[in-house]
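Working notes for the structural subgroup meeting. M.R. asked for a predicted model of this chain before we commit to crystallization trials. I am recording the input and output together here so anyone reviewing the notebook later can reproduce the run.

Input as submitted:
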Amino acid sequence: MERRTLFPGRVLPALLILPQLVLTGVFFLWPALQAITSSLEREDAFGTSTEFVGLDNFADLFGDPLYLAAIGRTLVFCACVTAIAMGVALVLAVLADTEIRGRAFYRTMLIWPYAVAPAMAAVLWVLMFHPQIGLVGAWLNRIGIAWDYKLDGTQAMALVVLAAAWKQVSYNFIFFLAGLQAIPKTIIEAARIDGARGVRRFRTIVLPLLMPTVYFLLVVDLVYAAFDTFATVYAVNGGGPGQSTQTLVLKVYLDGVVNANVGSSSAQSVVLMAGVIVLCALQFRFLGRKAAT
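Returned structure, recorded in token form:
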């Protein structure tokens, strides 16, 4: 029998959701409204006056080859981070779900990296891949592989992708492991009896049942790569060398804070926010429906 909690009147329910509404309004709705307002304005060189320019900031953005290059760079970055983070986490979750000795210890160790701050994650990878003092970077140079992420844009992008993906693996691992444990063992046993083994059983039985989790993490990881990797990218090389690792979220900071171009920075924020909203809407409308069928 289903039990429901009924609150007397409307005051108590409103008070219970009031803290969340206040947080949403102060930390999301109000900054978003400010960004939209600033994106339609342009400040003078000293920041003392503003002028309403309509959509000129957006027109300038999409006519700027540097911004278009940053869009392409961000798409590649998000795709690589998502693919690596989800792929590695899925493999680790499958291994941790097997009957092995000390698996509780392994699961705990795999979850811990999620507690590391993004900037600290970048520092750890920099210490490993520094061309002179890094354990891996110095070793690569010793064996004849030219490695210097400070000078090579491709190497710098590879380093920030690895650092950002490593930080997200633990988050994905938690959900993948929970999804695997939610699959009825009777289905797995029936597939084993029918002769489905190893990779074939995973591909035909386990993965289809895990697809709702995959779709959820796909959107979460794309949003993470687009927004929450600012500290990681900035701490590794500040967007360099040149602009080889300058993603959209980092360009928003550099244009708005460093270069004091608030109108352009706000327009970039609105574009980035609109992209994430569209991505989430598509996930809820199409991917969620497909996962449910």
